[in-house]
Structure formats: C-alpha cells, structure tokens
Amino acid sequence: MKRIYIPKNEIEGNILKAYLESDGIRTDISGESLRGGIGEVPVSDFIGIWVDDAEEARAVKIIQDYQSSLGAKDQPVENPKRKVIGFFWVFGLGAGVGLILGLLLNLPGNEGAKSPIESADLNKDGKPDVFYRYQGGQLSRIEKDRDLDGKIDSVEFYEGGKLTRIEADNDYSGVFSKFWYYGDGGLERSIEYYMIGEKPVEETSLIIHDDLRAVIYKDTKTGIIFKSNHYSNNHLRESHLDLAETGRFTRARAFDRMEEPSGESKR
Ligand SMILES: [Ca+2]
Questions:
Q1: Quick check: is 144 in a domain?
Q2: pLDDT, tens digit (0-9, with 9 covering 90-100), for 36-58
Q3: Residue 2 belongs to a domain
Q4: DSSP code, position 10
Q5: Which of 81-90, 104-113, 227-236 is least confident?
C-alpha cells in the first residue's frame, strides 16, 4: 500500500475514497480514528489515503482531476461536531434575534436610525418574518421564518455580496439539518442530517459545475460510509454499498440510462 494524498478534512477524505473505489481502486483512509465518534478526530490525525502500489498513478490522476474540477479552492475545515452544535446555536440565535428584533423594531423613534438590521413582513400580519443583517455596510445574513411561526427556519450567509451558505430547518422541527455550500461555481456541496430508523445519517452531495457527481451516506454513529452513489449527467450510474458497515464497500451496482439496475458485483 502506498500513501498518495493527505486529505484536508474528513469529508474530502470520504469523497475521495468513494471516488477511487468507484473506479475499482481499493482505498484505505488510514487511522481507525476516522471511524470513531463524530467530530472527535482532529485534522492532524488524518494520516492519508492509501492505495495498492500498482494503482498509485491511476489514483493520483483521479485525485488531480477531482481537485482541478473543484478549482483547487481551499475549503474550510469541517468539524461535524461543531456543525451539530452549529444548528442549535443558529436556532437559538435565530429565536433570540427574532425576540430582540421584535422588541427593537417596536421602539419608538427607531425609524430612520441606521440599523444594521432590516426586516420585512411578507404576510403582512404586523410581525417581521424576514431579517436582513448587515456587517460593515454589507449584507451578511438573511434570516427567514418561512412557516410564520415566529421562529427562524432558514439562514443565508453572504460574504462580499455573494451567497456562501444556507442552513435550513426544512421540517420546522427546530433543528437545522440541511446545509448548502456555495463557491465561485455556484452550489458545490450540500449536507443533510436525518435518521433512518435508529441510524443517524449524514448525506453529502458533491456538485461540480452544476452537475451532481456523488452522494455519500455516512452513519454518523460509527463514522462508516455505507452507501456511495455516483452520477454522470445527473443520472445515477453506480452505487457502492456496505450495508453491514464493515468499513469497506462489499457490493457495487451499476445502473443504465433509465436508472434501472444493469449489473451487480460483490467483493
Ligand atoms: Ca419558522
């Protein structure tokens, strides 16, 4: 086995592993710690992506293609645990901001003051349901209460006037569980958290130039990727499965243009 790459973070490591394995290259991400608890893995513990010596050239090429398709842009380090805390933080903040704003906006003499926050009342019930927050004169955040229950359920983040991220509570449960990340090429990645029975799932979609390329399903309790779907021209072409969560894909399915199964192999 040969180490060919040190991923920047867990997500990149998992995506690359899925990519390489979908091309039939046996891949190990070193460090069993990767399969440990969610968010407990410091970036420095990532020792690397390993492949068989004979596959080195092919694997390096696949990784280079992947990177150039991303524009070799530095992504922020993802920390899943921070993210989970993130939703609650945003949710709490949203509720808090809503409350404070409600008070502020009702203060007499506040009109005309240069506030870093503007709001709109879309359903005209007298209560604002969209908040625009500014930092240094620039839009930094749009917070929305889409179901009009008084709680923020979607937050758009802006940097330099450009949308960088959306966080949403799509089922209005009070937990922000869906995240979209935008780069120069538009939507690059989305992550959704949900349960399949007792299994907490993190579903990561990778989009390159408006094309869905891969969707990776991870059990966040075990840290194991149990399914990796690969697309071309937005059609599902391959699915790699590790339903027993052995840590290695044990089954691969191919799909035809109609997304009907056209072949299956076991390892
Ligand atoms: Ca709401």
A1: yes
A2: 444 444 544 557 888 899 999 99
A3: no
A4: H
A5: 104-113
Ligand 1 center–CA 152 separation, angstroms: 5
How far is it, in rounded angstroms, from Cα 198 to Cα 69?
36
Strand order from edge to edge, sheet including 2-5 = 2-5, 49-51, 27-29
Distance from the alpha carbon of residue 95 to the mean position of ligand 1, in angstroms: 9
Task: Kindly state whether residue 65 falls inside one of the protein's structural domains.
Answer: no
What's the pTM value of the predicted model, to 2 decimals? Answer: 0.62
Domain that holds residue 194: 79-266
Q: pLDDT (tens digit, 9 = 90+) per residue, 208-247?
A: 888 899 999 999 999 999 999 999 888 999 999 998 999 8
- Ligand 1 centroid to residue 190 C-alpha, Å: 21
Tokens, residue 192: 């959704």
How many angstroms is it from 155 CA to the middle of ligand 1? 11
Residue 168 has pLDDT above 50, yes or no: yes
Question: Does residue 31 belong to any structural domain of this protein?
Answer: no
Domain count for the chain, please give it: 1
CA of 228 from ligand 1 middle (Å) equals 33
Q: Taking the alpha carbons of 99, 100, 102, 103 in that order, is the dihedral positive or negative?
A: positive
Ligand 1 centre to CA of 192 (Å) is: 18
Q: Looking at residue 115, which CATH number applies to its domain?
A: 3.90.930
